[in-house]
């Protein structure tokens, strides 16, 4: 587990980080991410996954604890300086103005005043995100899945010529058909691996997480309940995470597939209320 590593070479470190939003308590978060690590974050809706990602992106300020990026306090980084090292794909990504696709992708590099390679990088990033055919279109005329790929290209463009950065993606596959989900997930992992970027990906697809990631973080009710290598994550852990019975099957090629059991009626306990005053240290199981 990451907790066994020294903090010296860590890209990202959270120690006892807590956060309060709208009366809810998040954390304490203890997390260490090494350069180049690829980690999937799973959890039910409202578990706090996006909140954790925003914290890591320096969009939210911890109430207490230590948050470091490249061994410096996260809050001491200016957003401009940080944008050279980390990029985030948020869950929703509407653009207010009717911008050309090229300009939306180029927004990833807006912090760079001199950027002679911008047109080349925009083209290459669009290709990597399966969005090259959308160049020349207006962003507001695109479908949901097309917009998602253009926004992924924007994130690729931001870290295109950077090494050992941090890529944070929040449900990057949500608007995509199954074929595109596989292509884009592979493209994101390859993009990060080629440059040594660490990748933290919030996913709702358990199979994408199990097949593509070596380390899984499971979140529930504002806390990280599990941070394990994939091989140590069990079906009962996933069932407890989502309060749902899961069926598992091994394909002919040896791939494990997991799906909610369709025989099980929806349990009312799935929709329990998250008490604001709960002690979040009690969630480990
Ligand atoms: N700014 C805020 N003010 C008040 N409550 C907030 C705020 N941001 C998030 N929350 C609440 O915190 C909880 C966690 O939200 P978050 O977006 O992190 O969940 P999530 O795990 O990403 O969910 P989903 O899978 O549905 O996207 C939710 O109940 C949400 O309503």
Automatic annotation (TrEMBL):
<keyword id="KW-0472">Membrane</keyword>
<keyword id="KW-1278">Translocase</keyword>
<keyword id="KW-0813">Transport</keyword>
<dbReference type="GO" id="GO:0005524">
    <property type="term" value="F:ATP binding"/>
</dbReference>
<dbReference type="InterPro" id="IPR003593">
    <property type="entry name" value="AAA+_ATPase"/>
</dbReference>
<feature type="domain" description="ABC transporter">
    <location>
        <begin position="4"/>
        <end position="246"/>
    </location>
</feature>
<dbReference type="Pfam" id="PF00005">
    <property type="entry name" value="ABC_tran"/>
</dbReference>
<keyword id="KW-0547">Nucleotide-binding</keyword>
<protein>
    <submittedName>
        <fullName>ATP-binding cassette domain-containing protein</fullName>
    </submittedName>
</protein>
<dbReference type="InterPro" id="IPR003439">
    <property type="entry name" value="ABC_transporter-like_ATP-bd"/>
</dbReference>
<keyword id="KW-1003">Cell membrane</keyword>
<dbReference type="InterPro" id="IPR027417">
    <property type="entry name" value="P-loop_NTPase"/>
</dbReference>
<keyword id="KW-0067">ATP-binding</keyword>
<dbReference type="InterPro" id="IPR017871">
    <property type="entry name" value="ABC_transporter-like_CS"/>
</dbReference>
<dbReference type="GO" id="GO:0016887">
    <property type="term" value="F:ATP hydrolysis activity"/>
</dbReference>
<comment type="function">
    <text>Part of the ABC transporter complex HmuTUV involved in hemin import. Responsible for energy coupling to the transport system.</text>
</comment>
């Amino acid at each position: 587990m990451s907790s066994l590593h020294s903090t010296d070479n860590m890209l990202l470190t959270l120690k006892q980080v807590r956060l309060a939003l709208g009366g809810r308590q998040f954390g304490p978060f203890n997390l260490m991410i090494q350069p180049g690590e690829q980690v999937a974050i799973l959890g039910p809706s409202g578990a706090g996954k996006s909140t954790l990602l925003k914290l890591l992106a320096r969009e939210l300020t911890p109430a207490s604890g230590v948050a470091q990026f490249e061994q410096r306090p996260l809050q001491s980084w200016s957003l401009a300086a940080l944008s050279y090292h980390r990029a985030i794909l948020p869950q929703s990504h509407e653009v207010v103005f009717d911008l050309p696709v090229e300009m939306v992708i180029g927004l990833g590099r807006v912090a760079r005043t001199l950027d002679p390679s911008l047109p080349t990088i925009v083209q290459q990033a669009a290709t990597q995100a399966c969005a090259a055919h959308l160049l020349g279109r207006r962003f507001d005329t695109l479908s949901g899945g097309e917009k998602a790929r253009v926004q992924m290209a924007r994130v690729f463009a931001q870290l295109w010529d950077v090494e050992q950065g941090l890529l944070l993606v929040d449900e990057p596959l949500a608007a995509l058909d199954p074929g595109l989900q596989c292509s884009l997930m592979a493209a994101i992992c390859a993009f990060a691996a080629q440059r040594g970027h660490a990748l933290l990906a919030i996913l709702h697809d358990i199979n994408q997480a199990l097949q593509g990631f070596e380390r899984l973080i499971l979140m529930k009710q504002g806390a990280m309940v599990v941070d394990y290598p994939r091989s140590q994550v069990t079906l009962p852990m996933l069932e407890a995470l989502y309060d749902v019975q899961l069926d598992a099957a091994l394909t002919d090629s040896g791939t494990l597939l997991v799906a909610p059991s369709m025989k099980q009626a929806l349990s009312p306990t799935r929709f329990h209320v998250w008490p604001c005053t709960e002690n979040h240290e009690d969630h480990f199981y």
